[in-house]
Design goal:
Layout lengths: L10 E7 L5 H16 L4 E6 L5 H4 L5 E3 L6 H10 L4 E5 L2 H9 L4 E5 L19 E5 L6 H7 L5 E4 L8 H4 L11 E7 L11 H16 L4 E6 L3 H8 L7 E4 L4 H10 L2 E4 L3 H10 L3 E3 L5 H14 L14 H10 L1 H18 L1 H21 L7 H6 L3 H23 L1
Parallel strand pairs: 1-2, 1-4, 2-3, 4-5, 5-6, 6-7, 8-9, 8-11, 9-10, 11-12
Helix pairs in contact: 1-16, 3-4, 7-8, 7-13, 7-14, 12-13
């Protein structure tokens, strides 16, 4: 590599997150924000690909480079040309290898170590310079088995912005008159789907009816579904509640979660962690991808809260989804996407009733649980993820700079 283009003491960081939802990019934004607080001068961040995260990472990225998601040889050439000191990659193991092939020492953050099985075990980059894995409860013996082969493994806590609970949970609860709820759909784009309307069209009507019927009159729906589509879904309920829509900035999303008396969440791991870091009561909506089933179980184990809405069995057969996922994650997701689309075509009204009735039972049960239930996930996982990842990235960059200086 050539000498870095930053000022003395600065660092050039290449970053890349897999294009699956918002979680990988939210984690990158959080780590880079931590790094920028540590080295506010001379830090240059070059993002490769990561299209789904552009709105989330706009404030922390200096330069964007195209990457089509499959041409890893081209990524290696592009990385080599950018004079990088270090790379930070979330969940895209082949990209981590591509950076290493360019001579760029790479920090790989595995937010979902439970995900890799079968043919997908080719993804984790076992020989990467630093492999940071989220310290999740309930990891299987199978997962812990293959992880023994990782060369430079370090366990870390949640990669979320962290403040003491009293600084984030700054509103009163439902029993005191708070009638605000947030429904977080997350970033629904996936590796093989660009559909952001089918899942909310099937799940939201029943959820909205249950919220209204249990006394909520201010409902924020956060996600990347177009506002026109969300307007059409909530139109029948406009006279009964006030609605607002996302997507939201990272800071605003966190504020809205903390202000809400209740969060209904499609069980994306980052959404579950951020709600837990705010201490907000949470009900898990039916998963829209394979990882959602495991993430919902992780949340249940950590909190002890059986606050979960299940798919009607004639819409999604969870056992069938998990059998497909045992082949590859993509096979499981393809089954789920098709089943949800078929449910919208054939079982829309029955699903609405099922979601509504489950939630009408779960909402009072959820709100009656002790407050410390909801911080259980971050308490089990820890909250040091962003800090540790930032330290590893900077230490790696400094080591590279030291060797370069010594060679000079």
């Amino acid at each position: 590599m050539n000498a870095p283009a930053t000022a003395p003491g600065g660092v050039r960081i290449g970053i890349l997150g897999v294009n699956f939802g918002w979680g990988p990019h939210a984690a990158l934004e959080t780590v880079i924000s931590e790094i920028r607080q540590t080295v506010p001068e001379g830090c240059q961040v070059v993002a490769f690909g990561s299209e789904y995260g552009r709105s989330l990472m706009a404030d922390v990225v200096d330069e964007w480079c195209e990457f089509d998601g499959s041409d890893h040889a081209a990524l290696t050439r592009a990385a080599a040309a950018k004079n990088l000191d270090v790379a930070l990659v979330t969940l895209e193991g082949f990209a981590a290898r591509a950076f290493e092939a360019a001579g760029v020492r790479t920090v790989f953050v595995d937010l979902m170590p439970f995900l890799w099985r079968g043919a997908d075990l080719a993804v984790p980059p076992l020989e990467v310079s630093h492999y940071l894995a989220l310290r999740l409860p309930g990891l299987s013996r199978e997962t812990l088995g293959w992880m023994r082969d990782i060369r430079n493994l370090r366990w870390i806590g949640a990669v979320v912005p962290w403040q003491p609970l009293e600084a984030t949970r700054h509103t009163y609860g439902h029993a005191d008159g708070n009638r605000r709820a947030i429904v977080t759909l997350g970033g629904m784009l996936g590796l093989t789907t660009r559909d952001t309307t089918t899942y909310p069209s099937l799940v939201l009507p029943g959820a909205i009816e249950a919220l209204i019927e249990t006394g909520f009159d201010s409902i924020l729906i956060a996600g990347n579904t177009r506002q026109a589509d969300l307007d059409a879904i909530v139109a029948p309920y406009r006279e009964r509640a006030e609605f607002r829509f996302g997507p939201l900035t990272r800071a605003e999303y966190r504020t809205r979660v903390a202000e809400s008396a209740l969060c209904l969440s499609q069980p994306g791991l980052m959404s579950l962690l951020e709600a837990s870091s705010c201490g907000t009561p949470l009900i898990r909506l039916p998963p829209q991808n394979v990882s959602g089933f495991q993430q919902a179980e992780i949340h249940r184990i950590a909190t002890g809260a059986h606050t979960e809405v299940k798919w009607p069995t004639d819409v999604v057969d969870e056992a069938a989804a998990l059998r497909k996922a045992a082949e590859t994650e993509a096979a499981g997701n393809d089954y789920l996407y098709a089943a949800i689309a078929d449910g919208l075509r054939r079982r829309r009204d029955a699903t609405r009733r099922s979601v509504r009735e489950q939630l009408k039972r779960l909402i009072p049960e959820c709100l009656a649980l002790p407050d410390d239930t909801w911080t259980g996930l971050v308490e089990k996982v820890g909250t040091d993820g962003a800090k540790v990842a930032a330290e590893v990235v900077l230490d790696t960059a400094r080591a590279v700079a030291g060797k370069r200086g010594g060679a000079g």
